[in-house]
Structures are given as structure tokens and as C-alpha cells.
Amino acid sequence: MMSKESKDLLDSLLNLADQENSSQLSLTSIKHLLLDLFLAGIDTASSTIEWAMAELLHNPEKLTKAQTELRQLLGKGRLVQESDINKLPYLQAVMKETLRLHPPTPFLLPHKAETEVEISSYVVPKAAQILVNVWAMGRDSSVWQNPTSFMPERFLESEIDVKGRDFELIPFGAGRRICPGLPLAQRMVHLKLASLLCTFDWKLANDMKPEDMDMTEKFGLTLHKSEPLLAIPIKSESLSTCVDWGDF
Ligand code: HEM
């Protein structure tokens, strides 16, 4: 059924479960683990990409800026790769700004206080359920200038990152229970967004104008656009630097 040499995640887990004395890793645990990864990793990443595209289409000059950065880096005839992400500061700033305004899990996951604790003269009782409102933190006017504006530029001159060390921006949480998928999410989201931006030009469906877009949010399992984004990809001559359209 499976090759012992294979190295993907499922093979590794099945290999572990196969080993003698590995009763701790049952097939049921493997199924639950994979379901957890799908639930935690798909909706969060896809909603981040949808919001980033929506904000860029809503702010066309920022869209042009992100595409120009990509085009200048890639030159002619090559697609963006994971190793390019470090050289794309504006793309990274777009990601951070998207996660600041639209964190996919606006209250993180529920936590529970193990002991009574006092923070800034507020007492959190033992066993209290803690929800951290990262959505409100991202829009706090005492921390962010023009908090409701989409301004990736604010991150260009700033060291603030989403890795759990800068508490004004913790869309992945912080500390021991920080999102374990953070490194994967960062790679996936940057790379997919960059591919969409460098491969196509974009316009809104139904001749909608950017200023008429509905940017309201809908909270379900994760925070989505209330109106799903409808955007049309256009084969772009100006951006054909990234793609040899002969391949399509
Ligand atoms: C943009 C994408 C993502 C965002 C914003 C995000 C955010 C979060 C947040 C806020 C938490 C809860 C942290 C806390 O309560 O302290 C979390 C937990 C988790 N995330 Fe992510 N996540 C993303 C992508 C992923 C991916 C791609 C995976 C794996 C494939 C993943 C796997 C998990 C798991 C397993 C947990 C639960 C960890 C635990 O209970 O200790 N996430 N994520």
C-alpha cells in the first residue's frame, strides 16, 4: 500500500504507526491529526490570500506597486520561487498589512488560565477562558496610524513581524501555543499571492469600481469577506516577464 522509502507526511506517519511498540500512534490519531491540519491550514491561508487580493484591487496603486516589485526582481521568463520571497519587501509588507486588518482567527483559539494571574491590575481568575482580540489590536489607534487604511508601507521601515514577538501584531498567536503552521503558512501565502500577481493583471467583475467594493467581514470559523471577491485574471502583456505564455 505504501512505500517505506516515501518521505511525505502521511507515509512518515504510517511508517511510525507500523513500527513495533508504537501503539500510541493509532490510525485514528493519524486521521485526526490530518483533519486538524486541513482545518487549521486551508481556510486560514485561503482567506488571507482572498483578503490580500481584495485589498490590492480596492487600492489599485498598491497593486501596481506589488506587481512592479515582482516584475523588476524576476526579469523575463521565470516564475516566482520560494527563494524570491526574502527579496520582495513590499509583498511581505502586503501580507503583514492584510493580517493586521483581517486576521483569519480574530480571537485566536480559546485559552484557559492555569492559575489566577494579575495583568496590569486586572485579575484573570483561575480556569477563565481567554479570548485574545487580535482583530481589535490590529485596529488600535493608539498603536497604528490611520488604523483602518490599507497601508503596507507602514511595515517597510519597521521591524514589526508576525512571529509572536511583537505583541501589537500576533495573527498567529504567541508563546507555546503559537500556530505551528506559521513557517508553512508564510511560504504558501507569499508564494501564491506572488504567483497571482506576477502571472496576471486583474480587474473586478461586472465592471465594478474599486471604491464600490464591499469590504465588510463575515465571521464564521474564520474571518471571511462578506461578499466573496469576484476578480477576473487577464493575460498580461506588460507582465509577461514572468511567464512564457507559449507554455499555456
Ligand atoms: C495565514 C495562515 C494562518 C494563520 C493566520 C494561522 C493562525 C493560527 C492561530 C491564531 C492559531 C491559534 C494560536 C493561539 O491560540 O495562540 C493557530 C493554531 C494552529 N494552527 Fe494556524 N494559522 C495559519 C495557517 C496554518 C497552517 C498552514 C497550518 C498547518 C498546516 C496551521 C496549523 C495550526 C494548528 C495545528 C494549530 C493548533 C495549535 C495548538 O493547538 O497548539 N495553521 N493558527
From TrEMBL:
Binding sites annotated in the UniProt record for heme: C179
Record's protein name: Uncharacterized protein
Entry's Gene Ontology molecular function annotations: heme binding; iron ion binding; monooxygenase activity; oxidoreductase activity, acting on paired donors, with incorporation or reduction of molecular oxygen
Pfam assignment, any one: p450
Source species of the chain: Acer yangbiense
Keywords noted in UniProt: Heme, Iron, Metal-binding, Monooxygenase, Oxidoreductase
Recorded superkingdom: Eukaryota
UniProt cofactor(s): heme
Family to which this protein belongs: Belongs to the cytochrome P450 family.
